[in-house]
Design brief:
Strand content: over 45%
Largest sheet: 11 strands, mixed
Distance between the termini: 23 Å
Pfam families: DUF4249
Order of helices and strands: EEEEHEEEEEEEEEEEEHEE
Organism: Chitinophaga costaii
Protein name: DUF4249 domain-containing protein
Number of helices: 2
Shape: globular
Length: 289
């Protein structure tokens, strides 16, 4: 049984991709791009400015950190369409993002398609591309196993069986949703087929977590009996995998005085962030007694 977690190594990327070094000092602000297009959905892009390591953070600063008025164009196999800026109110304040104008009925994300991204913001142009994989690791089955921890037998591990295509170089990222919670990524949210290429494999999926909350490292990975759990299992390309792999590693080493500086690997030159395509598969289980 393998646990869904990444080995402690850093990966290189293609020469055209930017490596962003994170230092514990104040640096010149960069554009931060969080962009994705999922199978069956419109693209979503969030633009903001990076903050210095010692910068204070409050709701006003967060609101002012968004980048407005950008021109964003997505290219889908030669067909171009622009994104519009929208906002949504949340408990923590307004969120600003760019997505397609549904009234113009652009194509939603399609596996196998390549998606170009062009952003013109604050006098500069940024270009990237991604693919929604058409061939990727998939979920075959899902189950759970009761776990006894500190005398409590109501904990449960989530386990899945996955299949992998015969060709090497498949990557996934996963999320879990527990009851009415949102989907959260796992603490180590990515996996590749280096060790299981072309073969089925049984693995344990840790519970996805809200990284803004304090983490109990003894029990965070477990669910509870009677939980309804949905897994969101996403095929991604290598660049998207490398971004989240190194970001997960950075998050999990934050505050460790003995760790080396982490290189967050993005695929949009001269920025922090990424543009990624996701194929999507869902599976749900109720953890009965």
């Amino acid at each position: 049984m393998r646990r869904f977690a990444m080995p402690i190594v850093l990966l290189g990327l293609f020469s055209c991709e930017k490596e962003v070094h994170i230092h514990s000092t104040n640096t010149v602000s960069q554009l931060v791009i969080e962009g994705k297009i999922e199978q069956g959905a419109y693209p979503v892009v969030v633009l903001s400015h990076s903050l210095g390591y010692f910068s204070g953070l409050d709701s006003t600063q967060t609101k002012n950190n968004y980048v407005h008025g950008a021109t964003i164009t997505v290219t889908d196999n030669g067909y171009n369409y622009d994104l519009r800026e929208y906002s949504r109110d949340t408990v923590g304040g307004s969120i600003y993002y760019y997505t397609a104008d549904s009234s113009r009925q652009p194509n939603r994300g399609i596996p196998g398609h390549n998606y170009g991204l062009k952003i013109v913001a604050e006098g500069k142009t940024y270009i990237s591309s991604t693919t929604i994989p058409s061939s990727h690791m998939t979920l075959d089955s899902i189950w759970y196993k009761r776990v006894l921890y500190d005398g409590d037998s109501n904990y449960a591990e989530l386990r899945v069986r996955i299949s992998d295509p015969p060709e090497k170089g498949n990557f996934v990222r996963y999320f879990t949703k527990r009851n009415r919670e949102p989907f959260y990524p796992g603490l180590f949210s990515t996996e590749n087929d280096d060790l299981v290429n072309g073969a089925p494999s049984n693995i344990t999926l840790d519970r996805g977590i809200n990284r803004n909350e304090k983490i109990d490292y003894q029990t965070y990975a477990y669910f509870r009996l009677k939980d309804t759990v949905t897994v969101k299992f996403c095929g991604i390309d290598r660049a998207t995998y490398n971004f989240w792999r190194t970001l997960d590693f950075s998050f999990n080493n934050n505050g460790n005085p003995f760790s080396s500086p982490i290189v967050i690997v993005g695929n949009i030159p001269e920025t922090q962030g990424y543009w990624g395509g996701y194929s999507v598969q869902y599976a749900t289980i109720i953890m009965t007694d």
